[in-house]
Design a protein that fits this description.
The chain is an alpha/beta fold. The chain is built from 9 helices and 19 strands.
Length: 358
Amino acid sequence: MTPPPKYEVAVVGAGPAGSTAAVYAARLGHRVALLDAGGGRHEAVARVHNLIGVSPETSGAELADLTVEQLIGYGVDFFPDAVTGVERVATDPSRFAVTADRADLRAERVVLATGFTDVEPDVSGLEQFAGRGVHYCVHCDAYTLGDHPVFVLGHDDHAANVAMLLLNVTADVDLLLDGADPEWSDDTARQVEAHPLDVVETPAEAPVPEAPTEGDEWLRGLRFEDGSVREYAGGFAVYGRSYNHDLARELGCELHEDGAVTVDEDRRTSVEGVYAAGDLTHGQNQTTIALGDGAYAGIAVHRDLRTFPVADELAEVPEAPAMADDLRARMRRVNDRGMTVGMTPDRDVHHVREGDDD
């Protein structure tokens, strides 16, 4: 039986946080595996916002494809596979066994970047408009809805605050309770009363799509149970989140009360050798914040694994360089041949591009 492949770092989740942790670890000389089942929240985004240098016409799926190509170019082994378990190897506690649907590997360090799942509104068919009229990040998408009628679905303090926040960019905000009783505080109730919001108690029944545009339907409005239709440029579903922390919990990682994984400033969890990054640790729902988290985790993993500098008391210094021969060969190939993966200065996107003479 073929033994499982061995890696220094295994990253679970190929969103912005996980991919950034993987690229940092790979470029710092480590053998890295990245596992992802696909279909994550960032991959489903129709337009990526607030990412400097990336056009908002870029979708999350397009960015994800380009990211995987870039990681493979740096030598990361990508497994498009759902991880079902992570545990310490009984015969070698310094390593973790990472089990996926179609893969089985070993790693010295694990980075968890599995994010969270949005709690969907109870309006039949509305979830299919995620990213195309139904949004979950007000900091990302409020700008695109400015000066248009918008809605907020929800009935707690957070939903009310999102609705009031949107008044910064538009004067036409409906707070839709969808037949539920408000669960916000007395102070929030006074604020809602004082702000120019239209609080709608009638349950929403179904989305109203606009005519298809290039094969994708966008939301045009909502039909309510009383037969009325309200037109919207879009809106936000604010029903909370469920952290995808099963792997972390099974490993024994400490969790916050809301289910987020507890980490220190270097994104270390309470379990030695296990790191966590991105929305799994805070639910900020921000691509740029997740990128920073991934960088912190990747650098911290490197510092944990690096050979040099060695401790002063060591009698024998290992041979340099510490980076494996095959990884150094790939590094030379990337650098010497000018091979790049990603968005180039001429604004063309190339999956693999070799250096030109022109």
